[in-house]
Amino acid sequence: MSGHHIQLGTLELGLTSGVPSSSDSWTPLDEVFLRSDIFTPESSEQVSTLLHALGDPGLSLRASWRMRGISLVVRVSLLPSDAPGSIWRRVRDRKGERCKILRKLFFHLRRGWDTGQGGYLMAANSVEDQRMAELYASLPSPEQPDFEASFWTADNEAKRRLMDLEEPQGIKTRLYQYQFRSVAKMLQMETQPKRLVDPIFTPLHEEGRDGVYYVNLTTWDIQRHPGWYDLPRGGILCEQMGTGKTLMCISLITSTLHQPCTPPRNSIDTSDVVTDHAMRTYPFDRYGQLREQVGETLHPAGPGIPSLVDMCADIAVKSDQSYRRSPLPTHIDEILSRQSCFYTFPAYDDAMREAKRKTLSRSIRKTYLANTTLVVVPGILVQQWKDELAKHVEDGVLKMYEVGTEALPDIEFLMCHDIILLDVARFGQEETMHRIQQDWEPSVLLQARWKRIILDEGHVAGSKTSNAMRLAITLDVERRWLVSGTPTKHLQQGGEVEASSSTGLSSRSSTTSRAWSRRDLEDATRIGVMVGGFLAAEPFRSEATFQEKVTNLLRGRDGPKYGAVRRLRYIMGNIMVKHAPRVIDHEALLPPTTLSTQMLQFHPMQRITYNVLASLIASNVHTSNFEDQDYFLHPRNTEAFNQVIKNLHLACFWYSAHDMGAHDCLERTKHHLENNESITAQGRQALQEAVRHLEAALHTPGWEEWMTNGVSIPYEAGDFTEYIRQSWSDSMDSNPDAIDGKSLQLLRDLNRNGVEEHQLHVEGWVARADKCQDFFKIMELEEKRGQREAEHFASAKAAAAQKPLAATKRKGPNKKEQLKLQLEQAKMNAERAAKPDLSHLPRPLPHVIKTKSRSSKVNHVVESILASDLTDKFVIFGDTYELGHLTEALDLFDIRSVFAGHSVSSTKRVEALRNFEKPNVQVCLLDLKLGARGLNLVCANRMIFLSPVWSLDVQAQAIKRIHRIGQKRATWIEILVTEGTFEEEIAKRSSTARSEQEEKLYSRAMIENPRFVEISPCAQNDKLFTVRFIPNGEDEQTTTTAPERDLDPANDLDSPIEVSPTTPIHRRTDSDIEPVIVLQSPTASSVARDYIPIPTASILKRKADQPTSKPKRVRVAFA
């Protein structure tokens, strides 16, 4: 058999009678033999296909047979269309008959070359049967690098270092073995990019020998060596979270500092690379012609014969840049500071009509070659990148420029740096269309071809719609990298399944047995955007091309077409760099981590609120007949629907609203039950349950007042007299047994020597009046805003859709506030000096109190922190409202915290994260919108989710903030779940039931079938916590001559402190009352009610003016 023929496989033909041949050798098969009547009817289709194939001279098909029992085994081979001597293309395929023949032939062919008993050639094998998660998990880990020798010595040295597991030049941190392999793989992809076989061809293995051939399953063209495309110089670094991807990128940058940026390959519309000096001074013809074409001016001295120094300098700046890393004399540095560039000429169409040719603007673009890497990261990671550079890179190795809010400097300045660091938002401001709309000049970034761009947290590259992505795609860049532990929306790294070793299937279906889900197809589409958009990989220069050649073939009711999954895997394997989790776990052993779900019971007041919300929803659902415009699931009520879902989530932590409408809902529900006999049994039962819970809530002393008046979470007030509770409690009329957290802090500040109880009583009413005034101002603004939106969101006023009341918004003091505080402090000190010493007088309230909140989750968090080791640090994820309430609790218990949510400025976030590293700060509060990706918080070893996270990908990302490379301690992660609520069901759901679509369906089910929480038979946790109840800066020995204290809490954090995870954190105990400055960690929300603290000086002034008799009780009305 000719060596050019491809051994396709075998056929098995059934016989009606024996063949008069006893030879075991292979006999050539001819058409005469096939036309005999010895074959069974079941083999007639295969016989017919063979006859047609043998009759097509273009195929040059060869077949041979031999007996096996009572059947005939036939070997089949053919000559591919690109083989020498093939007449495939010379013999025309009339009416597509050849395609039909080959399709049928491949459908019947079996694997194997001797027995004919293998599986069907076109059956779905283990790869074809994989879905996206399995495909991603099965990608091979990088192997030990095999570099080609380079002409440049520095190139060979950089490669040798990686092969010998020696840190790249300039890196002072020891890399793990898998990091060496990943960096080597990235360097190989940049310097020795592989070739991608034309994706319209599907690779198949020859039978009986080693060999690969390619089949176009659309035209059924078969080739041994089809066309190919160069893969991009770059790819996607998708190592799992917390494995040091930033260090890998930095190592890649330092390993290639010597490599110059080069112009595009195989471009016919660009000039040779020249230097600006040569363009203006060289007298040679080619420079003169280029100057004339581009309009470049000569040097004032005119052209002259260049010196040997000039020629050497021009060659050096276009070649190996290693000289830049060596100390050079100043005059040599100046000579080598010249820049290299090239020119791009617009295409010129000779066939264009003369009129159009004259109007065509033939602009010629000058492009500098910048040996600089653009690093684009989310704003919250800018400081982390700077810290990583300082931590891992030796001094003087890299020159980094951070782009702030100011305009970009000129291109020559930018090109003098090795790294340009930008946040995504600032990078997007350089996008062309954005700048045109702002009437700005085109971006400086467009003036150069950059060596490299690194898009950290590159999962955002799955969309082309943002300004940042449009600019990234537009920029002229030699090497492109996306960096993300989760490159697509649904792939969950770190928790992905390992590759299966299952064998191929023997089904005869031409498609896989499993259809791809919408999630799988979305991930494939996003990869297409990355490959065709950002990476600009041929032949997928457009998203539409990737859709046509890859993604569309994955769609199908019965599953992807044959070869489609293998094609996608081939593309992913060539552009992605990742290790299997088991490899990293073996080479970089991390301390153990424990993930637990903590089941908590509602506080009785929480349970009532939750059931009232459920009752409001049930009433809305069953009294609106599932279709009225006030129905939460009505298409017009999207905003109200989303707010209701959010309120249910918040009710598991703490929820209150100014007007929940429980009275009206109760009357409306009762009326509906009495006057509508057509209600279904299920609906009637739900409404009866709602009535029961609404009546129970309205008959509970204090509950309605807390919902109406309260903003902060209430705390037990058993250690105070009824006289104090009446003026400070938000349920003063019915059951003043609790005081909110913010009022407790204010009351603590007033608990000074010499102050009398009746004065605190008056201050309570004054503080309440101030609180109401601030609240009503906010309510007026909300009402005005609501009136503007009423036409569009009429149903948003429904009681269950009321936005929650938020805890106090706290901001760090600005300069004016600091000056005001200093003046106030000076005034206080002056008054203290002028007044007699009151330190011998008693305080009106105890020095310490015992209390707990009426939120079970707040109590659990406080108990966990107070019971922890003093060196433990906590990262807590929650909603902004939840974190606002929790901040008040932490302040009350003297637990220092910082807040780094999306509602504060990027500068404040960076400052907060830096402060968290200090040993006297124990808690970092984050929201999942910002804090779940990219941050390195290994200084913490404890993490708490205030509620279950629907997306396991987001949860895994968040956990990797503390359980990652660099963590030295065991980590504990807790997920707080309220017993009997929807949270419990979410926590029990498997990963396959947590898609975005599933979340929407589940949210809808929460409205359609609201569930109530009954009283648990288990005993409640009655544990109380000790709280310091003397003002900051005072203790038992405090006198009026005490030193002046700094009222600016920020100053306490800005003092230099040695950071160490084992440095003990001071925590207050009953017998250890020392000065503590409470950290001002800002919280934010759209609705806030601020308390106005009363300065100590004003208390003293009123004390002098007030009569000594006990004042009358003041009644403050509440709307």
From TrEMBL:
Region (Disordered): 488-517, 1030-1069
Pfam families: Helicase_C (PF00271), SNF2-rel_dom (PF00176)
Gene Ontology annotations of biological process type: DNA repair
Statement: the UniProt record of this protein carries the keyword Repeat: no
Protein name: p-loop containing nucleoside triphosphate hydrolase protein
Domain Helicase C-terminal stretches: 857-1007
SMART domains assigned to the protein according to its UniProt record, in alphabetical order: DEXDc (SM00487), HELICc (SM00490)
Key words, A-Z: ATP-binding, Hydrolase, Nucleotide-binding
Domain of life per record: Eukaryota
Record GO cellular component, one term: nucleus
Keyword ATP-binding: yes
Matching CDD domains: SF2_C_SNF
Residue ranges, compositional bias (Low complexity): 500-515
Any GO MF annotation of the entry: ATP binding
